[in-house]
Design goal:
The chain is of the alpha+beta class and 477 residues long. Helix content is 46%, strand content 12%. It has a 3-stranded antiparallel sheet with strand order 1-2-3, covered by helices on one side. Helix 3 crosses helix 6, helix 7 packs across helix 11 and helix 13 crosses helix 14. It is elongated and about 100 Å long.
Length: 477
């Protein structure tokens, strides 16, 4: 393992083109920002020699303005020049929150060279006590341990760079005591809860979306970023190579979180047949488009809100969307899927990650395996395998989903005119921004609903054609 170079002597690394590059700070401008210079060589020894010569030949010293540089100035410079160019937009949003809403207001006026561990320790303790700035009426002002530790990590990285550039001798963030991290409790839905949940999701018009999630265990952003071209209806193979996430109120389409996130899975043919039927009513390239903006996928925050409403109405425990992924993984393991296969299906970087995440499941599986082995060797039935009547085994009445007080958006409305006539109406917003209404009539409610469903499909198809023509005209201009 290579030894770490002393502070102030620059850095040496091997480039992709096979040459060695040495880089060091040779001075500072009038504002106190570091100026760097690099050297290139064919070998590490030659590169080190050139770097040493560069250091000896540089006569420019630190200007006094460096001493006046504040921690806030350095944080901003480090983020804009060293951090921001190499992180994803969603991560940028988090970094900017910690830097510009917390660290700079709390510590920004302290000179960089005078920043102490005690000041950082006091800042993080105060941040834990009263650092929350949003949803304070519902959650209070205390900030979570995870948020405090995230802010600390950003400050430490910035100070590490300041040490590397020779601005300070030691990183004052090293040694700070932080609130202990608490892992999010994993909640999964039981088979009974899952059935009730899906029945209520069907009533809400989100059956296909949540069933696909429970069948594949995809991350929320991966699921909502699916396009019809990603699914091979003949083989059931589904390609996952993008995700959607909100940044400052806008939806960003990017690559999956990790390299392992780019994967292909095979869906059950029943799921494929269901999606084939569902596609007949979707006039968008996205598998789950926004109802108001079919040219883009559903907002992840909207799905999160709908999830909690469906869980509440179906009488299930309150879980996160990510817990549906845990539910899929847990049931897959319990039904015999091996760890390596599951790791590939859900997009983990390695099987070790899957093992660490679902230790509770694999431990129970090992215990059951040991019990079966013991039973086979001893030739007797263990008392643990004897079935005992319990309250859960009593037959229950089938679950009836909660009927919505209002019709689902996008399904029109049905009203009774008189004893022998029903009217159905659908009024979508057209491309000119105005609503266009069309009606159907029938002698019974069931017949009216059937005619209305056909009318809605016809109007959606016409609206999709108009949007496509409008987009083509814009391209020609």
């Amino acid at each position: 393992m290579a030894k770490r170079r002393k502070n102030g002597t620059g850095s040496v690394h091997l480039r992709k083109d096979g040459r060695w590059e040495g880089r060091m700070v040779i001075g500072y401008d009038e504002n106190g920002w570091p100026k760097t210079k690099n050297v290139l060589a064919k070998t590490r020894t030659e590169c080190t020699r050139k770097l040493k010569a560069l250091q000896e030949g540089s006569e420019e010293k630190k200007p006094e303005t460096v001493r006046a540089m504040t921690f806030g100035d350095w944080l901003d410079y480090w983020y804009q020049n060293h951090s921001k160019p190499r992180i994803r937009k969603a991560t940028q949003q988090n970094y900017e929150n910690w830097i510009y809403h917390h660290a700079i207001p709390g510590l920004g006026e302290i000179p960089l060279q005078e920043l102490s561990q005690g000041q950082l320790q006091s800042f993080f303790a105060e941040m834990k006590r009263s650092g929350r700035k949003i949803l304070t009426d519902r959650c209070g002002t205390e900030m979570s341990a995870k948020s405090v530790r995230s802010c600390y990590a950003v400050c430490k990285m910035a100070l590490d760079r300041a040490v590397q550039d020779g601005l300070i001798r030691k990183n004052p963030a090293i040694g700070c005591k932080l609130p202990p991290s608490k892992e999010q409790e994993m909640k999964i839905l039981s088979e009974d809860e899952l059935q009730r949940f899906l029945m209520q999701a069907n009533e809400e018009g989100l059956y296909e979306l949540f069933l696909l999630e429970c069948t594949s265990g995809m991350r929320r952003g991966e699921l909502l970023a699916l396009q019809w071209g990603d699914l091979d209806f003949n083989t059931g193979e589904l390609h996952i190579d993008r995700q959607v996430y909100p940044v400052h109120g806008k939806l960003i389409i990017g690559e999956p979180k990790t390299k392992a996130g780019k994967r292909s899975i095979v869906l059950p043919m029943d799921m494929v047949d269901l999606l084939r039927e569902y596609r007949k009513g979707v006039f968008s390239q996205w598998m789950f488009p926004s109802r108001t903006k079919p040219e883009q996928p559903i907002d992840p925050d909207h799905i999160r809100k709908r999830l909690h409403r469906i869980l509440e109405q179906s009488g299930c425990k309150d879980v996160r969307f990510h817990d549906l992924r845990h539910t899929f993984a847990t049931m897959s393991l319990e039904h015999g899927m091996d760890i390596k296969t599951l790791s590939a299906v859900i997009g983990h970087a390695s099987a070790a990650t899957t093992l660490n995440t679902y230790t509770h499941v694999t431990s129970e599986m090992q215990a059951q395996a040991a019990l079966r082995i013991d039973k086979g060797i001893a030739g007797v039935e263990s008392f643990e395998t004897v079935s005992v009547p319990c309250e859960a085994s009593v037959a229950k009445a089938p679950y009836q989903p909660v009927k919505l007080k209002r019709r689902r958006p996008g399904t029109g409305c049905v009203s009774r005119i008189n004893d022998h006539l029903w009217e159905g109406r659908y009024s979508p917003k057209w491309i000119d921004g105005k609503k266009r209404a069309r009606n159907v009539y029938a002698k019974t409610e069931a017949e009216c609903e059937e005619k209305l469903a056909a009318l809605i499909l016809d109007m959606k198809a016409g609206l999709a054609r108009l949007r496509k023509e409008q987009g083509a005209q814009k391209l020609h201009r």
